[in-house]
Amino acid sequence: MEYRKLANTDLNVSAICLGTMTYGDQNTQAEAFNQLDYAMSQGINFIDTAEMYPVPPKADTYTKTETIIGHWLKNQPRDKIILGGKVAGPRRGMDWIRGGPPCLDSTNIREAIEGSLKRMQTDYIDIYQLHWPERNVPMFGQYLFDPANEYVSGKFGEGERKEWVTIRNQLETLAELVKEGKIRYIGLSNEQPWGLMEFLRIAKEYDLPRVATVQNCYNLINRGMEFGMSEVLFRENVGLLAYSPLAFGHLTGKYIDDPAAPGRITEFLGYSQRYKKPNVTPASKAYAELARAHGLTPTQLALSFVYHRWFVTSTIIGATKMHQLKENMAAWDTKLSPEVMLEIEDLHLRMMNPAP
């Protein structure tokens, strides 16, 4: 396993991070333990989770993932494991999370982390991330910024407009938690270039914790990170934690071979609008054909592409079956030839970002 220095931290993280958002729904505790044990045995030292998990988010499964991780973590050498957690931001339709959750103010962030620490049976989280921005931004399949959707914190009443919790206030709360030893470093998730730059600017201006990581979607059919954000990561020395490298299974080719194949897309109908767009299936089919023409599996092609991009610090992989986890990890040893990379770029130019 390769280890990489996480930007502006003293952490060396494995280039592959184990994602856990199936634990407590698609995976039982026993299955989760098997995955965690196997990943650690293969050199992974980085685990990513969130208070909202498992997904799709539901009232009856909320926090089950963290609870499972806690049962496992209590028997592990804590200082050998790098744990990433997330606090859920404002979101309609999730009233079971702190009443909405309404905002990312001090009360909500503190309630979230205290709950996470208790469930995971640990005193601290290594990288604590804001799961999505407090402010109005397009995300989770949205791709157009719309000022008409402006909101900030508070309730989401019809036509209601309120000031959102400022980035400075969010950072001040996180600074208190760092000082208290409850978190070591901070990160963002599902963030945009403007947001990342503002967090960095305000942290510098007011001597507050500096963002170390951004966790965003990145894969062959969603390369939005390359439009503006990759330059920011480079120039500001921020690490990318790439999630969804297989595009919810689309890039394994399984839905091309069998549209009814078991997976999140078929088991949770209506979930993940990002992958419902018109060119997702044609693009996935083209990448699968490219892989097979070069003696690769679609999974190898998709994962190797993300694993070895220059701006990716660690790639978050998840699996429901052990054989999937083993295949995903083994794909690390696949290196794509210059010829294959040129063909990938040709496809990208012809079917650019079908799953924004």
Automatic annotation (TrEMBL):
- Spell out the coiled coil positions from the record: none
Q: Where is the NADP-dependent oxidoreductase domain?
A: 15-346
Which keywords are on file for this protein? Answer: Oxidoreductase
Superkingdom of origin: Bacteria
The reply on keyword Oxidoreductase is yes
Recorded GO molecular functions are:
oxidoreductase activity
Which InterPro entries does this chain map to?
AKR_Detox_Biosynth (IPR050523), NAD(P)_OxRdtase_dom_sf (IPR036812), NADP_OxRdtase_dom (IPR023210)
Q: According to its UniProt record, what is one Pfam family this protein matches? A: Aldo_ket_red
Can you name this protein? Protein tas
The gene name reads: tas
